[in-house]
Amino acid sequence: MPKERTAKQVYEQFSTEGLYEEAYLDKDEVKKVLTMVMEDYQFGKSLRRIKDPSWRVIFNIHYDVFRELCDQLMRFERQKTSNHQGLFAFIVLHFEDLELDWSFLENIRTIRNKNKYQGLDISTVMWHNVELQFDLYISALKKEIERKLH
After folding, report:
1. 121 with 58: CB under 8 angstroms?
2. Rounded distance, CA 99 to CA 115, Å?
3. Do the beta carbons of residue 55 and residue 127 sit within 8 Å?
4. What tens digit of pLDDT does each residue of 4-63 get?
5. SS3 helix, strand, coil % of the chain, rounded to 5?
6. Which residues, 6+ apart, have CB-to-CB distance to 58 below 8 Å?
7. Cα torsion through 94, 95, 97, 103, rounded to 10
8. What is the DSSP letter of 20?
9. Is 23 exposed, middle or buried (0-12, 13-18, 19+ CB in 10 A)?
10. What is the rounded distance in angstroms from the CA atom of residue 49 to the CA atom of residue 7?
11. What is the 8-class DSSP label of residue 96?
């Protein structure tokens, strides 16, 4: 098993390899995306209350919301990347006030990749281990984006 890299190591590798690209900041677009993403988040939250929900579906909705919020926040630094690990490293290092836990971000990214590419299902336990932190981080990212919009 490869040694886990730090956010700084990932960021430096991405910077060196030119995997961060210049991005245009369109605040109207950010507002539209934020509105849609938060609708997705509310829908994902509503699914938690149904009987015998698919935790895989719920996890993936929350992951996609979180990733998209990170992507929008990165726009304020006029940067973008398609790689999730590089995105999360950028956010951790450029928005230190958010105090996002790199290990948690690596954990959810790994769960998502094992689900998408290796067919690993997401159990009730796996979901409950990340649920609270997802909610806290999504809320923090939303507030930071709104603060930067105003």
Report:
1. no
2. 27
3. yes
4. 899 999 999 999 999 999 999 999 999 999 999 999 999 999 999 999 999 999 999 999
5. 75, 5, 25
6. 44, 47, 48, 127
7. -90
8. S
9. middle
10. 35
11. G
18: left (phi over 0), alpha (psi -120 to 50) or beta: left
**Total residue count of the chain as it appears in this document:** 150
The two three-digit tokens of residue 101, written as one number: 């836990």
Extract the tokens encoding 78: 């006029």
Cβ pair 111, 122 in contact under 8 A: yes
Of residues 64, 89, 66, the one with CA closest to residue 135:
66
- Calpha distance 24→119 (Å, rounded): 36
Do residues 33 and 68 touch, judged by C-beta distance below 8 A? yes
Token duo for residue 70:
């990170």
Dihedral sign for Cα 22, 66, 35, 96, please: negative
pLDDT digits (tens, 9 = 90+) for 66-119: 999 999 999 999 999 999 999 999 999 999 999 999 999 999 999 999 999 999
